[in-house]
Amino acid sequence: MLIDLHTHSRRSDGTDSPTELVENAARAGLAVVALTDHDAMTGWDEAQIAADRVGITLVKGLEISCTFRHRGVHLLGYEPDPSDPALLAELEQVLRGRQDRLPKTLAKLNELGIPITEDDVLAVSGDAAATGRPHVADALRIAGVVASRDEAFERFLMPGRPAYVDRYAADLEHMIRLLVAAGGRAVIAHPWTRQSRSVLTAETIGELADVGLAGLEIDHNDHDADTRAALRAIAGDLDLVVTGSSDYHGTGKVGYDLGINTTAPDQAVRLLGDRVTLFR
Question: Does 206 fall in a domain?
């Protein structure tokens, strides 16, 4: 029973439509797949139609850009009420931050002598809920400036690089509370990657559990064996759910294939059993 609780479609920065993602999940042998686009729930209806047709279980989720003690942390939210007004208002502010960053990023690239335009980026982003750095990276790749998204981030778009622009992100504790109030479950995505490791200690994860954090995404390509073991110990001490996921982005992220990391069925039941009929 293969369960993958973190994937992205073209409604954020993946390359599959929601339908294609679900179809590819079924081909990969998944029984359960979560659609967790960045800061948006716009792909859920299309994905559900596909999931009903191909006979797998869809978990409706999203990955929310947050800040915690001045560091970026990503939060996976599962099965919240999509009409909850407080949650929608905060997500709208996060998405507005993504949109507002685009012209500033392009201005910095233009100053570097790279003539990328907003139309170039929008041609890539298509029906995404918001246009973000991965779409800028794809436009740079199409223009021949870089060979891949990874190169675009490394040369231009990461913090400290010449075209990086900061943006609004939700406060992590506040967002956990919003998700819980909206009937959802909150899991920290890839907690010990990039900036987040320095602030997500055993102590602070415990504090987040006290405000409603349900689990940690531990089995992820960006965590090595030692990292996974250390996070498992923290999750065990705090009685948090342990999840595993691919963080699939289609062709936008090489080596993160559907099902490459999975969530154990008993952990999925702990997390979602009262919200989703997981096993058909």
Answer: no
Report if residue 108 sits inside a domain. yes
Domain residues for 134? 103-157
18 Cβ contact partners less than 8 Å away, ≥ 6 residues apart: 9, 10, 11, 35, 43, 44, 46, 47, 50
HEC per residue, 206-236: HHHHHCCEEEEEEECCCCCHHHHHHHHHHHH
Residue in 232, 234, 245 with CA at minimum distance from that of residue 201: 234
Cβ-contact 214, 183 below 8 angstroms: no
| 137 located within any domain | yes
Q: Write out pLDDT tens, residues 97-112.
A: 988 999 999 999 999 9
> How far is residue 197 CA from its own chain's centroid?
17
Structural domains of the chain, count: 1
Other C-beta atoms closer than 10 Å to the C-beta of 177 total 15
CATH number, domain containing residue 128: 1.10.150.650
Task: Tell me the mean pLDDT in the region 189-199.
Answer: 91
Return the structure tokens found at 222: 């960006």
Is the pTM of the predicted complex or chain greater than 0.90?
Answer: yes
> Residue 14 in contact with residue 246, Cβ under 8 Å?
no
Asked if residue 132 belongs to a domain, the reply is: yes
